[in-house]
Write a structure and sequence with these properties.
Length: 171
């Protein structure tokens, strides 16, 4: 990722366990809240959560940190998108869809998040919604001037979802 963060700011509190601080225990308040108060970007919290995940290789602990980041900065599309990626990697597609949906609502021009939403929707056989998400991704990528291959990939994914939908309708 290239971003080095002070572990004293973002690691588990001393004496705490590696699952991170519970969200509802004010005694375990970390310096992450102070980070926000100092005006630093919420992306730093999301990056810290990802770093925490990489360091201990425990998705449950990482999810606890993403949940904390979402509480501290609920309007950060980056936090919701990163949380969705983690959930999708754990095959928790319904929760991933909720996170990706929140991220697309906060940043509708982000084609990557629309594409991730479409992929997660496909995993749960919500094929019409998946096709719509891939179409939104293609539109966002086109508007952003993304390489044509990125746009074409979303059209292919949309077509795949529609083809599956037609296949299930004919069965």
């Amino acid at each position: 990722m290239g971003l080095t963060l002070d572990p004293a700011l973002f690691g588990p509190p001393s004496g705490g366990d590696e699952d991170g601080p519970p969200l509802d225990d004010p005694a375990n308040e970390t310096d992450a809240g102070a980070c926000i108060a100092r005006g630093e970007a919420c992306a730093a919290i999301a990056a810290a959560s990802e770093g925490y995940y990489d360091r201990i290789q425990r998705a449950a602990a990482a999810l606890s940190w993403f949940d904390r980041a979402a509480v501290l900065a609920p309007e950060s599309a980056a936090v919701w998108s990163s949380r969705g990626r983690l959930l999708e990697s754990r095959h928790q597609f319904s929760d991933a869809i909720a996170s990706f949906s929140k991220a697309t609502a906060l940043d509708p021009s982000n084609g990557e998040v629309h594409a991730l939403l479409g992929k997660a929707l496909s995993h749960t056989n919500q094929l019409e919604a998946a096709a719509a998400a891939h179409a939104a991704a293609a539109d966002a990528f086109t508007t952003a001037g993304a390489p044509p291959i990125q746009v074409a990939d979303q059209h292919v994914s949309r077509g795949r979802a529609l083809r599956q939908l037609l296949g299930t309708a004919g069965a």
